[in-house]
UniProtKB/TrEMBL annotation:
Swiss-Prot/TrEMBL cofactor(s): L-ascorbate; Fe(2+)
Residue span(s) of domain TauD/TfdA-like: 114-356
Assigned EC number: 1.14.11.1
Keywords from the UniProt entry: Dioxygenase, Iron, Metal-binding, Oxidoreductase
Name of this protein: Gamma-butyrobetaine dioxygenase
Gene3D superfamilies: 3.30.2020.30, Clavaminate synthase-like
InterPro entries with a match to the protein in the record: AlphaKG_dependent_hydroxylases, GBBH-like_N, GBBH-like_N_sf, TauD-like_sf, TauD/TfdA-like
Organism (species): Ruegeria denitrificans
Family annotation (CDD domains): CAS_like
One Pfam family, short name: GBBH-like_N
EC top class, as a word: oxidoreductase
One BP term from GO: carnitine biosynthetic process
GO molecular function: gamma-butyrobetaine dioxygenase activity; metal ion binding
Domain (Gamma-butyrobetaine hydroxylase-like N-terminal): residue spans on this chain: 8-87
Amino acid sequence: MLRSAIHDASVVTVEFDTGTQARFHAIWLRDNALDPDTRAPGNGQRLITIGDIPADVSVSTADVINGDLSVTFQPEGKTATFPADWLADHVYDCDRAQDTGRIAPGITTWERGIGAPSGDWTEVHAKPAAKRDWLAAVAEFGFAKLTGGPTEPESLLKVADLFGYVRETNYGPYFEVRTEVNPTNLAYTGLGLQAHTDNPYRDPVPTLQILYCLENSAEGGDSIVVDGFRAAEKLRDQNPEGFALLTGYPARFEYKGSDGVWLRSRRPMIELSPDGELVGIRFNNRSSAPFVDVPFDQMEAYYAAYRQLGEIIDDPAMGVSFKLEPGESFIVDNTRVLHARLGYSGAGSRWLQGCYADKDGLLSTLAAMEMAQPEAAE
């Protein structure tokens, strides 16, 4: 509820029943009006362009009516109502965190010892609350397992169906992870793999990866996941100058392992939003191309920071390890969580299938379920 509103031609100042105040510009309020001439009923999409709003837009009246804000704009003579709760959710007249490398709200960084968040295949498919909790774990921690699934090939596609769609690449809708003769990618060998994010040579990268186990009787081959955001936090705290180098200059990544494919990207290893929030990690020793965008006098320090980040990532205290059993899978946020594999022997068999998907689908599904929380909890 609102207690009061005062205004001049360009700004409306409101006081909420909590005693807090917030200012809103006339142009902002007009652009965000909620009436059916401005926003499409049903989907809420905006029906006007910025050019449709008069450049000299101003506020002629601003009143509190039944606890909400009623504003009349000139020269249109248009009146719009803004619910108090809506205004409270969209306040921008406030101090905002500007710490470089900060973590977004709702994300929890971790190291070894947290235990792998997990969901049960049957429950996640049958119970909305279980599905919501599993999706929420992926959003918060950047990874989660799924246990008790079928062992038929292509079962991983049903994991993606829980929240979105498979992102097809040059590897196909999905790919096989098992030993091959003359492999096109080192993932298709029994070699151990350093913790890495997948496909850093794409722009944009696939934001989710699913790995699904069909057979795993070989000795070794444990999966390891590492929180790249926690690694970045450690580098930021231990070596602020090195952190600034890895965020301030683009690295280069490249893949051309099969005919007709030459993928390249130019992005920082540690990516920040314009206001300093940590938004992504690209780290993959196999796919790094020569760094040519770092000034000569910064290159040695850049490499020192790169080495230090690698040492943090390789620290056994950073990783959560587990050996997938047939019918088990795990999903990682490929913009954040690195995954690794211990080497495995030629005896027995190890067969996983992998695919990519997009995080926006997962976050959209989760947000819709949280909005309908009473139904999701049934």
